[in-house]
């Protein structure tokens, strides 16, 4: 942290854009609406960056697997944990006539059988069964294994890289972000569920941008979460800190310490009637939560009224650390103006009915907020595509968006990944 402290973070709401080495000019709209630009991103970013697939807890024991579709590259990744506990990734494609092998999104099993002609594979990738093998022509079963995808795990986060031989290691890709967030705990990671998987008619950057600035929160979410992210001392929900960290970035959002549910919000009042259970997710006593709060990169200025540490792992993965746990958002481009969005909660198992009620209320609230965002983003995308504007302007609290688009432009232009990371 010493790298960033103390000058730039001294005031209550420190400046973020210039101290992080960013320009202050307008940003071209083209990357948000241009099919040609999207093709460049497809190759230069999603074809070269390490892509976060989720948590190791999604593979809770040996012989479990998940399947992740990466439409922007036309890839269906089968990620396995084999008997030796090694996490591996493969293309989910049969070596016989290239059918898709695994058809569910997660499960348990040490072998996979293609449902077309029953070719079988072990979860370390080897082909272990070819029915009526004698009727093939010089078939070498050793060469019939699953096609591997490069895969690595950092701090329990699973990443893949779709280059045959990645130009940089995961460690180098994560760079200063990886250094700062080493040992950041992932409390209740084993108790996770998707609260949203949906397709939005908006560019992936339009979409992810909306979750990386709190400037809009009091305006767009007045009846849901607006009052928890702003108060008289911070009416525009300015961030409490923010750091560019290599290709990645993090930001601390403000939480209103005086927030109480309004009179008319009877369900919310009931849900939070026993606030000694802790923050919104009701994680009161987990040691892991304390370890999360103690981590130097989370709420790095140690301000009392923080709400969330947003970690944006380039290009498309967000981790929201909060006093109650963490959730993740993934934004997978489908086309220049459509995006698959996955929101996944990680919260403690409820100890009693009241805590469960509180958690359910929280999850419903999240769904409400997300709906408010979705409608807004689809309108924004249509308006951007109208051609009325060629640029957008960003304020200081939107520094993450600026750092993102600058990083994207760098990656699109760079001949090598190392050049993009420089
Ligand atoms: S395509 Fe998989 S067994 Fe034939
Ligand atoms: Fe929002």
Automatic annotation (TrEMBL):
KW Oxidoreductase (keyword) present: yes
GO MF terms held by the record: 2 iron, 2 sulfur cluster binding; dioxygenase activity; iron ion binding
Disordered, as annotated region: 1-26
Entry cofactors: Fe cation
CDD domains hit by this protein: RHO_alpha_C, Rieske_RO_Alpha_N
Keyword Iron-sulfur: yes
InterPro entries, per database record: Rieske_2Fe-2S (IPR017941), Rieske_2Fe-2S_sf (IPR036922), Ring_hydroxy_dOase_asu_C_dom (IPR015879), Rng_hydr_dOase-A (IPR001663)
Record keywords: 2Fe-2S, Dioxygenase, Iron, Iron-sulfur, Metal-binding, Oxidoreductase
Highest taxon of source: Bacteria
Stretches assigned to the Rieske domain: 50-160
Annotated protein name in UniProt: Phenylpropionate dioxygenase-like ring-hydroxylating dioxygenase large terminal subunit
Species of the source: Panacagrimonas perspica
